[in-house]
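pipeline stage [seq->struct] | target=N-acetyltransferase domain-containing protein | organism=Ficus carica | residues=423
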Amino acid sequence: MVVEDMIIRVREIDIDKDIPAVEDLEKRCETTSSRSGKMSLFTDLLGDPICRIRHSPSFLMLVAEIRVGVEKEMVGVIRGCIKTVTCGKKFTRPNGSLVAGDEVPDDHSDHKAIVTPICTKLAYILGLRVSPSHRRKGIGSKLINQIEDWFRKNGAEYSYMATEFDNKPSLNLFTNKCHYTKFRTPSILVQPVFAHRVNTNRNRVTIVKLSLADAEALYRRRFSATEFFPHDIDRILHNKLNLGTYVGVPAESYSAESWPGLAEFLSDPPESWAVMSMWNCKEAYTLQVKGASLARRLAARSTRVVDGALPWLRIPSVPDVFRPFGVLFMYGLGAEGPRAKRIVKALCGHAHNMAKHLMCGVVAAEVAAQDPLRLAIPHWERLSCAEDVWCIKRLVEDYGDGPVGDWTKSSPGPSIFVDPREF
């Protein structure tokens, strides 16, 4: 492809040689965003350009470079990964016959029906960057097309991406030029880590840390039919960035010492319970808010001073997000029963205290917009994103499983499973 006498070449990244050029490109993109006069969130990949995809089963990073004569310049990057996820579910009777959708109660209480997840191979695009001085020259589209070719060669049936609701250039590129459609609009909920610890005892909740084997068994037994559930959940739970999986139950049900084990818990669960896993993003990358006014920075600092000097007042403070900070990500959230929200709130408090110990700046979660647990997750509206946009594209003509139909046309369910490797 030739644009203004420039030859554009897209190739796989060379980790041994390309890191300085990638970092320079990211900085150029940051500088342009900072000039907008608005606060913006920037990511420091800590010298590892594939840190956000390297934990996926299959991944690729491409770079675009231009050549004019003998001179070369990196002008674009894109990252992608592939995994198998749940895209729907079907109900069958013990004799193997399918149950019609209108026969299944909303709460799935029909014990005669067996719920079976329908899976697909899903690709994810992230980290698309194009040099500010070379935009609107087809470089972004070329990067997307080439990584989609790699997706197809590796058996992916769908591709999706996520962006902010107000990121019009990104949405226009994917929806208008690359034929993606808006699919899901989850909420990113962010809570600052305060100078004081959160008191979780007042909720009268027992919190138990599960073994890796029990955590995997619980997720596969209870949540494998949730949309976007990753079928390599075992790989996620065994990852070094995973901080553990915790179950919360009413204090009168069990104490930490009397926990009966997962098998007995699943055979006769308490009326209300909740589960949550935690992921240490800080070891992979850090974030930083830039573009804030001096007045805003001073106001935030004053809250930290008061919170640190008078912790017994339990005054919420704004973390120093104007310097690089880490994130503790809460994922795999699920709950049942009338007291589920109270238990989730206690688990979130436990995550906050763990984040404080790890010196993270915030705790975060991403949930479906209609998830009833959304209101139970403590968060600050000004730090959160009420509507993240996920766009999806069907890559192949044939489907891996007929009953799901075209996933891109399916209605959203009450919850999604957000993979921590992609946050």
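stage status: PASS
auto-comment: The radius of gyration is 23 Å. The chain is about 25% helix and 30% strand.
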